[in-house]
Amino acid sequence: MNLEIPQKLLKFRYMKFVEIINQKKFTLISVILFLFVTINLLEGERGLISYYEKQKIKEQLVQDKKSLITQLNLIEKKINLLTGTVNLDYLEMLYRKKFLVGKPNEKIYVDTNENKTSRKN
User: Fold this and answer.
1) Tens digit of pLDDT per residue, the chain (121 long)?
2) Helix H segments across 1-121?
3) Which residue from 87, 78, 117, 111 is spatially nearest to 97, judged by alpha carbons?
4) What is the pLDDT of residues 15-48, one digit of tens each?
5) Could you tell me which residues come within 8 angstroms of residue 102 by beta carbon, excluding any fewer than 6 positions away?
6) DSSP state of 84
7) Distance CA 20, CA 33 (A)
8) What angle do CA 103, 107, 108 make, to 5 degrees?
9) Which of 19, 1, 25 is closest to 11 using CA atoms?
10) Could you tell me the CA-to-CA distances from 11 to 6, 58, 109 in Å, in that order?
């Protein structure tokens, strides 16, 4: 009989808990739903934190694209100077730069710092 009394008390306490849940069902569901929505809003692959990370990556890619476009335009300009109508001034400039050749009575100065900076890159 001693065992039956605690079991009755446990049933009574359990029933009291179930009654409280039944009365507060709407608030309990709304709290759980609110927690679910806020967690999914902040975290996850489509969350707010991930959104800001993806925006940073997008901005970096746009900057990379701009720099690549400027490099491409520069290379296309050099190609156009060498092909099509030959630009003799540009060819002379390349010839002087590569082979260190000058006109008669012209002094040529070599910048040693330019070579050092090109090695670092």
Assistant:
1) 444 555 555 566 667 777 777 778 888 888 999 999 888 888 877 888 888 999 999 999 999 999 999 999 999 988 877 776 767 777 777 777 777 666 666 776 667 776 554 444 3
2) 4-23, 25-42, 48-82, 88-99, 112-120
3) 111
4) 777 777 777 888 888 899 999 988 888 887 788 8
5) 96, 108
6) S
7) 19
8) 90
9) 19
10) 9, 60, 101
How far is 93 from 95, CA to CA, in rounded Å? 5
CA 60 → CA 37, 51, 66, distances in Å? 30, 14, 10
Residues 42, 50: contact at Cβ < 8 Å?
no
Amino acid at 100: L
Copy the structure tokens of residue 90: 């540009």
Q: Tokens 């890619």, residue?
A: 61
